[in-house]
Amino acid sequence: MYCWFLAASLLGAASARVATPGNETLPYLDAALPAHERARDLLGRMTWEDKVGQLGGIRRAVSRVNGEPSFNRTAFEQTRKTQNGQVGLGFQMNWADEVLPIVNELRQEQIDDSRLHIPYITIADSVNGIWVSGGTLFPGTNAMASSWNVNLYAQAVEVIRDENLAIGVQWVLSPEVDLAKDPRNGRNGEMYGEDAYLASEFATQYIKTMQEQDDDGWVKVATTIKHWVYGQGSGGVNRASMHGGINHVLNDLGAPYIKPIREAKPLSLMASYASVDHVPLSVNRHLLQDVLRDIVGFQGLIMSDANAIEYLYTESKVARSPMDAAKKAIKAGLEHELHPGGHGVFTTLIDAEDDEEIVSLLDESVLALLQIKFLTGQFDKPLPTIGDMKATLRKKEHLEVNKNMSRESIVMLQNDGLLPLTKGHLGKVAVIGPYADIINAGMYAACNSTDPAYGSSFRRSMERELGADAVLYAQGTNSILPSNDTDDASIQEAVSAAKDAGLAVLVLGSGLGTFDPSTVNNERTDQEGFAHADLSFPGQQQQLLEAVLDTGIPTILIMSSGQNFLLPDSILARTSAVFHSFLSGEFTGDVLVEILLGETNPSGKLTVTIPEANGAFPVAYDFLPSDDRGGFGAATKYDWHWPQLTRSPALRFGYGLSYTSFEIGNVTATAARGACNTTAVHVSASVTNTGERAGQEVVQVYYRPDVSVIEMPVMKLIRFSKVEVEAGDTVQVEFVVPGRDLGYFVNGDWVADGGDYAFWVGSSSRLEDLTQVNVTLSH
Ligand SMILES: *[C@@H]1O[C@H](CO)[C@@H](O)[C@H](O)[C@H]1NC(C)=O
Ligand SMILES: *[C@@H]1O[C@H](CO)[C@@H](O)[C@H](O)[C@H]1NC(C)=O
Ligand SMILES: *[C@@H]1O[C@H](CO)[C@@H](O)[C@H](O)[C@H]1NC(C)=O
Ligand SMILES: *[C@@H]1O[C@H](CO)[C@@H](O)[C@H](O)[C@H]1NC(C)=O
Ligand SMILES: *[C@@H]1O[C@H](CO)[C@@H](O)[C@H](O)[C@H]1NC(C)=O
Ligand SMILES: *[C@@H]1O[C@H](CO)[C@@H](O)[C@H](O)[C@H]1NC(C)=O
Ligand SMILES: *[C@@H]1O[C@H](CO)[C@@H](O)[C@H](O)[C@H]1NC(C)=O
Ligand SMILES: *[C@@H]1O[C@H](CO)[C@@H](O)[C@H](O)[C@H]1NC(C)=O
């Protein structure tokens, strides 16, 4: 059989720590004991009230009123009485140095005042950096994934981890491994893209880096893999595959969880809001226990999403009352409640002490949280200091890593030869569009996009680089929402700027907004809470684009958003160059300028396929063969079958251009017997830089079994490697794929049978960019 090389479990692992002398009578205070022993000891000393209190927390400790942080003691105490497991930082536009003293005080109070001195653990979302303002602002997750550079990502996560530690946050609500297969989903910018393997590689790295142990053996920052599990649309195609069963959950939606959970052991997991097969995840015992725990092997704490337990009786109506919902959820396997404000639902369990099953499940739930607290050193480590915080946030090296990340995250989708521009020969440049002068970082970023202190927008970067006189800025339109606005004065202004300059750069997108409470969510067309009925540029941006293209002036289009937009041939044919920069970091503007001027050679690749029409999806490259059947003859503009409407999407998963050119050749795949008598496929290829300058190429390996027990996608990514190649040089790339990795789940069992396989190696998932080789694998 196969050898398993699983990392030792963090849970229950003893670690060498310095003992705190003095209190030998209380084992839970003994830092030398393993976390699970300390947790058991403490549990034995807790009252029912103590235990119920640990099931929830206070998500939003500090708000902001009139530009100042504001702490409401009355509201805090009301919640604290019944929910005191964790504490959140509150409003994200507060500055770290304002929030830290307040949160430190609350934490110290809880240690001093609570009967058993049980500390909170500080918890926060952390997508492109720390939750509150003042840290290093990275690009969004889909941007970072577009780098296809897992080592660089590890550096970025290390920065995000250390900045979290510096403000005392030791539990983050990431990574999000939901798959961005549906372009309508407003949250795609928070995800790693449409592919399970890519997401799983990035998420494994994220968890390993965050949960690294410090010199004393404490886990630096606990992670939460989420949201187990979300589905995806079926596309309305006759004969298309139907989804919902166990093979879909384990091979598609759950696939990005397997490796992170087995190898990196995230300490917690968040259940999704979704109902799978009519059963909301919060009460879905089958998916939480039989599948997640028993098959996937998850051992950490399972938490709810915000308000999810409440939705059981307010929306799904699968519970009669708050207490009914709480009982059903804890019986299904939820162990902790994430609640943005108010009373929470698990607090109602205070009246369930006579229910033996609840009593024992509640003990398990409290133990799960206490273990995270002990593993992360909450009982033993000192609170963070303002001095350390200031020395850590936005360190020079952190900013450099961030800039490096931006340099590799931007994807060039088209270049007719206009780029790179030559600085010395540039006249004026028109910089146009409602996204040209903001940092569009996404709603989970602590980014006041209108504040110039937050890095440089593309416009500001261009002005700095070329001089303000050389940049003709025109917003073009402020209509970024669906509107009947026919006023095109500002569009005309942009057209004039384009004509005056002779070169136009348009920055269009979605997701604009600041986190000022007075404007929150009132101008967004992307991110959580939004789905896209129309994938063209929202508001009057489409008219703006057409009007500028109609001038015939050379035009560069930069997309700025978590989402993808339609790029029909009519647009592509008239646009000189096209980029997607996804959700910005603070250096996205600077790096776009470096790229336009050729100082940085772009190397990002799409992690999401760009759809060709609003109705033509699923669009992800790894569709099932039956998704592409059921049509008669060629599809037209009005109907479709995968993968072609009027053309197959050229801008597919894995695609992205460079200023140099590469040739991937000499592709071989051979089966070999390796360590532990396992079989493996050895894939090799050479990458030759056939252009004039150094660049990076992402070599991608896809595969498919010829015959399988269940229907398998037309191809799946199985390995990738980003390599730097000097002009004229050739670099050899080797991959080893253990036979085991080529398997799939059938009704919960992993099947890796050997047999005939096709492998493809190349620079994107487009067939024209791939070389096929076949290999036969014995058992
Ligand atoms: C031991 O712990 C108890 C309870 O936390 C505390 O009251 C006592 O002061 C501690 N004793 C020492 C020597 O630290
Ligand atoms: C503080 O919270 C309490 C309880 O929720 C509320 O009644 C009061 O209005 C709040 N005070 C302020 C200044 O917001
Ligand atoms: C940024 O990237 C450059 C080029 O790869 C490298 O030399 C430099 O060390 C990187 N900076 C950091 C802080 O990692
Ligand atoms: C955002 O920045 C602008 C410009 O500096 C400022 O006027 C506004 O108050 C800021 N908003 C918040 C919530 O900090
Ligand atoms: C546009 O006009 C139509 C017809 O008057 C109206 O129903 C619709 O609400 C308007 N849309 C917007 C976004 O104002
Ligand atoms: C194949 O490999 C040889 C050297 O082993 C190299 O010279 C040649 O450029 C490679 N061909 C391609 C297409 O990469
Ligand atoms: C290795 O595996 C093959 C095929 O399963 C088997 O025939 C052979 O005996 C194994 N060798 C060892 C040393 O286990
Ligand atoms: C791989 O197998 C397919 C059919 O299974 C065949 O069409 C193709 O020519 C083979 N390719 C190579 C390089 O052998």
UniProtKB/TrEMBL annotation:
<dbReference type="InterPro" id="IPR017853">
    <property type="entry name" value="GH"/>
</dbReference>
<dbReference type="GO" id="GO:0008422">
    <property type="term" value="F:beta-glucosidase activity"/>
</dbReference>
<dbReference type="InterPro" id="IPR001764">
    <property type="entry name" value="Glyco_hydro_3_N"/>
</dbReference>
<dbReference type="InterPro" id="IPR026891">
    <property type="entry name" value="Fn3-like"/>
</dbReference>
<keyword id="KW-0624">Polysaccharide degradation</keyword>
<dbReference type="InterPro" id="IPR036881">
    <property type="entry name" value="Glyco_hydro_3_C_sf"/>
</dbReference>
<dbReference type="GO" id="GO:0000272">
    <property type="term" value="P:polysaccharide catabolic process"/>
</dbReference>
<dbReference type="Pfam" id="PF01915">
    <property type="entry name" value="Glyco_hydro_3_C"/>
</dbReference>
<keyword id="KW-0325">Glycoprotein</keyword>
<protein>
    <recommendedName>
        <fullName>beta-glucosidase</fullName>
        <ecNumber>3.2.1.21</ecNumber>
    </recommendedName>
</protein>
<keyword id="KW-0378">Hydrolase</keyword>
<comment type="pathway">
    <text>Glycan metabolism; cellulose degradation.</text>
</comment>
<dbReference type="Pfam" id="PF00933">
    <property type="entry name" value="Glyco_hydro_3"/>
</dbReference>
<feature type="signal peptide">
    <location>
        <begin position="1"/>
        <end position="16"/>
    </location>
</feature>
<dbReference type="InterPro" id="IPR013783">
    <property type="entry name" value="Ig-like_fold"/>
</dbReference>
<feature type="domain" description="Fibronectin type III-like">
    <location>
        <begin position="697"/>
        <end position="765"/>
    </location>
</feature>
<dbReference type="InterPro" id="IPR002772">
    <property type="entry name" value="Glyco_hydro_3_C"/>
</dbReference>
<dbReference type="Pfam" id="PF14310">
    <property type="entry name" value="Fn3-like"/>
</dbReference>
<keyword id="KW-0326">Glycosidase</keyword>
<dbReference type="InterPro" id="IPR050288">
    <property type="entry name" value="Cellulose_deg_GH3"/>
</dbReference>
<keyword id="KW-0119">Carbohydrate metabolism</keyword>
<keyword id="KW-0732">Signal</keyword>
<comment type="similarity">
    <text>Belongs to the glycosyl hydrolase 3 family.</text>
</comment>
<dbReference type="InterPro" id="IPR036962">
    <property type="entry name" value="Glyco_hydro_3_N_sf"/>
</dbReference>
